[in-house]
Amino acid sequence: GEFPFVTAAPGGGATVGDIILEIGGTPVLGMTLGDVRGVLNSCPHPIRIKTGLGIWLYLSKCFTPGSMDSQLQQLIRENLYLRAVPCTTRQPRDGEISGVDYNFVSIKEFFSLEESGALLESGKFKGMQS
């Protein structure tokens, strides 16, 4: 559940930590690591990569509904959350499958994930951490 980012930048241009927005013209925000690898493997060389900074800030901003920024923000969120399985500290309900519907974790595990930056976002529901 993490945005693809640059891990090495020997040739300049990109900086380690930059978020990868596109690979060879294909938007990759919200894709799983496997999907991103698939895009990389299918691109002819040299591979053109578009990067950006501050995606979390961008996603947290409020834009005018219907504006290009608002539409892009929504597309990023939809792509991201289609491939993410949320974590919760509540107990599974009948029929819910761990790792499919939610990742059911203890409160201690949740805080550890939150502190390490492994969660895309976190919040409280009705006063409880979820």
Automatic annotation (TrEMBL):
One of its GO terms (cellular component) is membrane. SUPFAM superfamilies: P-loop containing nucleoside triphosphate hydrolases (SSF52540), PDZ domain-like (SSF50156). Its main location: membrane. It comes from the Eukaryota. Keywords: Membrane. It is found in: Membrane. This is Membrane-associated guanylate kinase, WW and PDZ domain-containing protein 3-like. It comes from Cynoglossus semilaevis (Tongue sole). The lineage of its organism: Eukaryota, Metazoa, Chordata, Craniata, Vertebrata.
